[in-house]
């Protein structure tokens, strides 16, 4: 072997294997290793036991190895074994090792003969071994026995493939000498994944059991049925030797004697036997690791980079640092404040493309939901006219008035302004809900400290609830201010002269004709008998609602004029996940084909509110909320006095104009009030006062207690991170100028292909 660094390679790979096995599959590195494959009873386990010099593997008939055994041999003065699943426990008695392998196998696979791909990690320290890592795999079989599943052959084959298909895996193909080599299952499966023979090493067992007068000389000399890396012959203990507890050291001496004394093998005795096989494997694995170093290094670096971000937050949390909890608390609160602000104000980095953030949802409430709620309470026309009529009569009292009384106008306007309180308070409630959801979303990063998360949520939510009262008081104050003085000199107010001349139809202003207000997909719900629900591309303009087959807008399905249309809510069906609203004609005419109304469905309530807001802009109002253009007023409702009718009409127009001004003002001021008193205040509170509240809320140590899961996850991540860093460090120290044996030249192995 070359420099000292190369001798560290196999232990290094062992360390990585342990670190990654204990942590799970989060780091998917193909570490260099040797997989032992062969048919059942080919002598695979005996070869491994000969390496160790101890009996420690389960024995018996049929399938004995039922889980992969990752066997790490470490050259060491003391002799003992360790399992990864029994951390800290040293096994000195190798009979106990066998019992533990059997128990651990049964724990996963059950006591029948089933198999499992979950490996058992066993490390053996001994002065008799060279550094080596092997994987003992279940023997290939053709027939299921006992409780085994019928497809046991395929299950074992799939498991072997998981290991040997990796370029980083050397294949030790074990074949008994007393069977036809051309039919060797081990060599066939190796050929499938390694057609060039670069990774396959042949092992011939049971040379002492060949028929008298026959030998495997030509095979071992690589003349007959050649392999690129050739074959090594070994002689294992017989079943009689095993049953008689024949010492492995004695068996190795007998093996040496066999090769030296056998006329066919004595000239190559130095290249045969278990010690030579172990030395060759050690060399081959070391060379193989060296060859795969560049690729391994780049994989380690990419894994390290991907972990870097996750480990960043753990780096400062040193258990021996007394200020760790204080630092963590400050960092967490600071990060929470930044996240909350980004959620509300918006941010260019890490934009969520899946759903709207808190700020975007609040913006939607302000500019779509709130205006819609205001319009919804625009007033029942018949009731309003009746109230105006009563107000005029009550103002005049016993007299008959010649002029339209402004007191009646004021009384009606004030009554309508009071109705604005409900949607304003509802808007505040909706914003509070969004704020609390945003707080919960931002505290998700504090999951590692459950008490801190709980306290942070409680303190911020309590503060938001406290601000709720002040905000509602302020909004109600705005409405009280509007009630306190009816400003008929407002520049947008139409005044008495214009009100008398204006008719109701003029009030029904629409947006610019043919102006497209909105486009988007909606589901058109028609009764199941007539085709059920279908998605169409809808285009809403100022004058019509059209729908097309798709967004190319080439194939128009229908165009519905907006005259006399209104909206109403529809309860979603028991099994439906969609949110529905309907469009209908106030004159009871069919809207589409023979349907009195059409139902339109969206994926969320937000989409419904957004579409309703778009319909408002097009002049399509919710049910009972639009000014109805009634030319004739029922005789039982109002007096037929023409003068009174004119006065009612005038005040109706005045009320409409003034309420329009108030709506505009409220639509502008309520969001500003909420922003100032609640949202901006919550941001300031989090930045400047939250920390003080947390300190005063209880013991800092209990606040910063990690959850058990988090502590475990952190430890695993840090262990993984340091394992990767250490591996890179060791790899960095190793020169690539190591002396190594070149790969042998290719040989013709058509014999194997032909046999398949």
Automatic annotation (TrEMBL):
Residues 515-620 form the PH domain. It comes from Xiphophorus couchianus. PANTHER family: DYNAMIN (PTHR11566), DYNAMIN-2 (PTHR11566:SF23). It is a peripheral membrane protein. Residues 28-294 form the Dynamin-type G domain. GO terms for cellular component: centriole; clathrin-coated pit; clathrin-coated vesicle; microtubule; midbody; neuron projection; phagocytic cup; phagocytic vesicle membrane. This is Dynamin-2. Keywords: Acetylation, Cell junction, Cell projection, Coated pit, Cytoplasm, Cytoplasmic vesicle, Cytoskeleton, Endocytosis, Endosome, GTP-binding, Hydrolase, Membrane, Microtubule, Motor protein, Nucleotide-binding, Phagocytosis, Phosphoprotein, Synapse, Synaptosome. It is found in: Cell projection, Phagocytic cup; Cell projection, Podosome; Cell projection, Uropodium; Cytoplasm, Cytoskeleton, Microtubule organizing center, Centrosome, Centriole. GO terms for molecular function: GTP binding; GTPase activity; microtubule binding. It is an enzyme of class 3 (hydrolase). It catalyses: GTP + H2O = GDP + phosphate + H(+). Its EC number is 3.6.5.5. Belongs to the TRAFAC class dynamin-like GTPase superfamily. Dynamin/Fzo/YdjA family. GO terms for biological process: phagocytosis; receptor internalization; synaptic vesicle budding from presynaptic endocytic zone membrane. Pfam families: Dynamin_M, Dynamin_N, GED, PH.
């Amino acid at each position: 072997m070359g420099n000292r660094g190369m001798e560290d390679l196999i232990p290094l790979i062992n360390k990585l294997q342990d670190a990654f096995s204990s942590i799970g599959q989060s780091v998917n590195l193909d570490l260099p290793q040797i997989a032992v494959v062969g048919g059942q009873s080919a002598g695979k386990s005996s070869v491994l036991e000969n390496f160790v010099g101890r009996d420690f593997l389960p024995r018996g008939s049929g399938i004995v190895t039922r889980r992969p055994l990752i066997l790490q041999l470490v050259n060491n003065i003391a002799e003992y074994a360790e399992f990864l699943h029994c951390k800290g426990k040293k096994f000195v008695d190798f009979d106990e090792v066998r019992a533990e392998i059997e128990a651990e196998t049964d724990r996963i696979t059950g006591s029948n003969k089933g198999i499992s791909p979950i490996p058992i990690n066993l490390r053996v320290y001994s002065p008799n071994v060279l550094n080596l890592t092997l994987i003992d795999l279940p023997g290939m079989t053709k027939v299921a026995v006992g409780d085994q599943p019928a497809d046991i052959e395929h299950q074992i084959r799939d498991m072997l493939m998981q290991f040997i298909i990796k370029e980083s895996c050397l294949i030790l193909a074990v074949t008994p000498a007393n069977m036809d080599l051309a039919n060797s299952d081990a060599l066939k499966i190796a050929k499938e994944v390694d057609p060039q023979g670069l990774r396959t090493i042949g092992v011939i067992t049971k040379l002492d059991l060949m028929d008298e007068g026959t030998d495997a000389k030509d095979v071992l000399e690589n003349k007959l049925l050649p392999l690129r890396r050739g074959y090594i012959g070994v002689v294992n203990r017989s079943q009689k030797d095993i049953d008689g507890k024949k010492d492995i050291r004695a068996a190795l001496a007998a093996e040496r004697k066999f090769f030296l004394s056998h006329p066919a093998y004595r000239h190559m005795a130095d290249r045969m036997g278990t010690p030579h096989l172990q030395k060759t494997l050690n060399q081959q694995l070391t060379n193989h690791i060296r060859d795969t170093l560049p690729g391994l290094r780049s994989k380690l670096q990419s894994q390290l980079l991907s972990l870097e971000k996750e480990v960043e937050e753990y780096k400062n949390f040193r258990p021996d640092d007394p200020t760790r909890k204080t630092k963590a608390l400050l960092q967490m609160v600071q990060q929470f404040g930044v996240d909350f602000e980004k959620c509300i104000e918006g941010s260019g980095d890490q934009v969520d493309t899946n759903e709207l953030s808190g700020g975007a949802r609040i913006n939607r409430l302000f500019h779509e939901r709130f205006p819609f709620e205001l319009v919804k309470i625009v007033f029942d026309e018949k009731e309003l006219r009746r109230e105006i009529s009563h107000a005029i009569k009550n103002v005049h009292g016993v007299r008959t008035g010649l002029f339209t009384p402004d007191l009646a106008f004021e009384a009606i306007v004030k009554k309508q302004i009071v109705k604005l309180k409900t949607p304003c308070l509802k808007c505040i409630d909706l914003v509070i809900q969004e704020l609390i959801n945003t707080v919960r979303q931002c505290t998700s990063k504090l999951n590692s400290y459950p008490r801190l998360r709980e306290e942070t949520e409680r303190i911020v939510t309590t503060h938001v609830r406290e601000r709720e009262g002040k905000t509602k008081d302020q909004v109600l104050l705005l409405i009280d201010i509007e009630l306190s003085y009816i400003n008929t000199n407002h520049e947008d107010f139409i005044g008495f002269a214009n009100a008398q001349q204006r008719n109701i139809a003029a009030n029904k202003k629409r947006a610019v004709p043919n102006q497209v207000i909105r486009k988007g997909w909606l589901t058109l719900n028609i009764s199941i008998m007539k085709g059920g629900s279908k998605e169409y591309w809808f285009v809403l303009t100022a004058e019509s609602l059209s729908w097309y087959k798709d967004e190319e807008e080439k194939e128009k399905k229908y165009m519905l004029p907006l005259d006399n249309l209104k909206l109403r809510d529809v309860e979603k069906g028991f099994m439906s996940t969609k949110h529905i609203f309907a469009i209908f004609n106030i004159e009871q005419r069919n809207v589409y084909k023979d349907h009195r109304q059409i139902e339109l469905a969206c994926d969320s309530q937000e989409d419904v509110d957004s579409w309703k807001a778009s319909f408002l802009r097009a002049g399509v109002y919710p049910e009972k909320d639009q000014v109805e253009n009634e030319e004739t007023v029922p005789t039982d409702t109002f007096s037929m006095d023409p003068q009174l009718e004119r006065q009612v009409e005038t005040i109706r127009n005045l009320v409409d104009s003034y309420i329009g001004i108030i709506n505009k003002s409220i639509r502008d001021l309520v969001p500003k009030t909420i922003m100032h008193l609640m949202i901006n205040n919550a941001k300031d509170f989090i930045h400047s006062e939250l920390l003080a509240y947390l300190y005063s809320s209880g013991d800092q140590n209990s606040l910063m207690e990690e959850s058990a899961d988090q502590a475990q996850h952190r430890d695993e991540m840090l262990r993984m991170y340091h394992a990767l860093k250490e591996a890179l460090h060791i790899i960095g120290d190793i020169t690539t100028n190591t002396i190594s044996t070149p790969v042998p030249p290719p040989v013709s192995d058509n014999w194997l292909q032909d046999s398949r």
